[in-house]
């Protein structure tokens, strides 16, 4: 089960009221630094930007692939453990809009996790140490440690043997 907080809103739809989630200046700041980081091949500099400029809790030994996209409204709700690898064009979200509400939820990625290319991680999900998320998977619930998941929605494929 995902751990999210639901916030009800009055208005035409929740997305139209996104400034209730994060002020405009912060979204512009996050957008700038997240876009810069998406194209950087220098992992240490990329991690520094993600940590210092947008507030992602990312360990120094984590690696984020080109074009990976992090939530623009609340990237500070993301944590990435040591030795983890985030694949090319993966998306990690901490918010989602519904017609009359929005949800916020932290995303916790453990140590030595592999997130495959083009995978999407939804808000409120925890991915255990040593887990593997297959390319193109959509993770809608927690992934236990040392487990391989894949598909849409992501389902357990098997156990991961320690390397």
UniProtKB/TrEMBL annotation:
Query: Which keywords does this Swiss-Prot/TrEMBL entry list?
Result: Acyltransferase, Repeat, Transferase
By its UniProt entry, which InterPro entries does this protein fall under? Answer: Hexapep, Hexapep_transf_CS, Trans_hexapeptide_repeat, Trimer_LpxA-like_sf
Q: Does the keyword Cell division apply?
A: no
| Superkingdom of the source species | Bacteria
SUPFAM superfamilies attached to this UniProt entry? Trimeric LpxA-like enzymes
Q: Where are the transmembrane segments?
A: none
According to its UniProt record, the EC number is 2.3.1.-
A Gene Ontology molecular function term of the record: acyltransferase activity
Q: Which Pfam families match?
A: Hexapep
Q: What is this protein called?
A: Putative acetyltransferase
- Gene source species: Neomoorella humiferrea
Q: What is the lineage of its organism?
A: Bacteria, Bacillati, Bacillota, Clostridia, Neomoorellales
């Amino acid at each position: 089960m995902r751990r999210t907080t639901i916030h009800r809103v009055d208005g035409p739809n929740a997305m139209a009221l996104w400034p209730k989630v994060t002020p405009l200046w912060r979204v512009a700041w996050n957008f700038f630094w997240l876009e810069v980081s998406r194209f950087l091949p220098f992992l240490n500099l990329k991690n520094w930007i993600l940590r210092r400029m947008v507030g992602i809790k990312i360990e120094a030994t984590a690696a984020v692939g080109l074009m990976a996209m992090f939530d623009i409204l609340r990237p500070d709700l993301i944590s990435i453990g040591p030795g983890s690898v985030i694949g090319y064009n993966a998306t990690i979200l901490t918010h989602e809009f519904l017609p009359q509400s929005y949800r916020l939820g932290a995303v916790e990625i453990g140590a030595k996790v592999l997130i495959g290319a083009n995978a999407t991680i939804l808000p409120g999900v925890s991915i255990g140490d040593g887990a593997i998320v297959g390319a193109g998977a959509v993770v809608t619930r927690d992934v236990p440690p040392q487990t391989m998941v894949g598909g849409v929605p992501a389902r357990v494929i098997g156990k991961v043997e320690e390397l």
